[in-house]
Amino acid sequence: MSEVYAVRRTRLRERCNASGSTAALVSRPANVRYLSGAAPEKAVLLLGRTEDVLVCAEPPDDRIPHNRPDEALRLHVMTGIGGDPAVEAAALAVAQGVDALAVEEHHLTVTRHRAIRDAAPPLRLTGVAGAVEQLRVVKDEEEISCLRIGAEIADQALGELLESILVGRTERHLALELERRLVDHGADGPAFPTSVATGPHAGRPGHRPTDRRVEEGDFLSVCLGATYRGYRCEIGRTFVIGTAPADWQIELYDLVFSAQRAGRESLAPGAACRDVDRAARQVLDSAGYAEALPVLTGHGVGLEIDEDPQLTPAAMGKLDACVPVTVEPGVHLPGRGGVRIDDTLVVRPEADGGPELLTITTKELLAL
Questions:
Q1: Quick one: residue 317, left, alpha or beta (phi over 0 = left, psi -120 to 50 = alpha)?
Q2: What is the distance in angstroms between the CA of the first residue and the CA of the last residue of the chain?
Q3: What is the tens place of the pLDDT at every residue in 136-171?
Q4: What is the pTM of this model?
Q5: CA-CA distance, 343 to 111, in Å (whole number)?
Q6: Are 177 and 161 in contact (CB under 8 A)?
Q7: What region holds the Peptidase M24 domain (predicted)?
Q8: Span 109-125, pLDDT tens digits
Q9: Before 121, cis peptide (omega within 30)?
Q10: Which of 202, 263, 194, 211 is nearest to 238 (CA)?
C-alpha cells in the first residue's frame, strides 16, 4: 500500500504545483487517511518541498497492522500538550524553505487559519479547494474490496436480525442490536447511526430510533452500514410485520422498488449524475408522489458515508467507472409510514457486467 499512498500524494503535489504552491497542508481527517494510511486523531499531513511529514499530537497506535501510517512518511510527534498539529506543520514547512502553502480552507476554521498565518508569517497561504476529495471519487480495487467486505458484514447483520422475533421490541433496541452485530462480524463500527423506523416512522430519511415498539401490520424500514478499514457502505430495506401486507403496502413497495431498479440500471460510466436521479425520481413522480420524495436519489461512499458524486436533480458531472454510489429512493407518507430501498453499488462498464451490487440482501417484500 505504501506505493499507492505515494502515488496519491504525487497527484496532489502536481495539482498544487500547477497552482503555484510548493507544499500542501492536509487537515481533513478522511483526506489525511487517504494520503497517509491510518493516522491518529487530529493528525495532519504536510506535503513538503523536501519531504512529507505526518504531524501528530500523539503517537499512532500500531498494534493493528492496517492502522499504521505509511512507513514512507516521516512521523513528527508533538511534545507539548494542547498544541495544534496544523500550526506545527506550517512551522515545519517554513523550515523546509516553503514560500507558498496550499491549505484546505473548506475544512479549517477562521481561528485555525489565523493561527497558522501568525505562526508562519513568511508563508503565502493559498487554497487547495476540494482537490483531495476529487481524487477520492474513483476508487482502486483495494478500496472497493474494503467496501465489498463491509457490505457483506452489513448483509450478515441484517439477515440475522430478520430471523429473530421483532414484535414488541423498540426501534432503539433493534438499532443497538444491529450495531453490535456489525462489530461482532468484523466491522470497525457502524458507518453512521443505524436507523430503524416502524409504523408511521417507516421510510423517513435519517429517522432516529425511538422507543416506539414494533406492531403487527407495521412497515419496518432499516438503514445501516458497516465501516471496514475506514471504508463505509450503506444498505436500506423495508419489510412488513405480520402474516401478509395490506394492498396499499404492496402497491407502494412495488413502486419504490421500480424506482430503485430504474436508478440502478442507469448507472454506467459517462452517465450524467442528474440522469440517474431522474430515472428513479420520474417513476415516483409520475405516480403522484413528487411532494413525498427525498432531495437526492443517492451519493458516493468511501472513507466518508456521504461523498461526491451527488445524485440530485441539479447535480453536475458524469459518473466514472469504479465509483461506488448508493441508490436509495423512498417515499414517506405522514401518519402512515413508507418505503425506502437502499443499495451500495460500484459503477462498472457494460463489458464488465454493468453496475456491481455490493449489498445483496433480498429486496423482496418479506412479511416477518
A1: left
A2: 44
A3: 999 999 999 999 999 999 999 999 999 999 999 999
A4: 0.94
A5: 40
A6: yes
A7: 146-348
A8: 999 999 999 988 889 99
A9: no
A10: 202
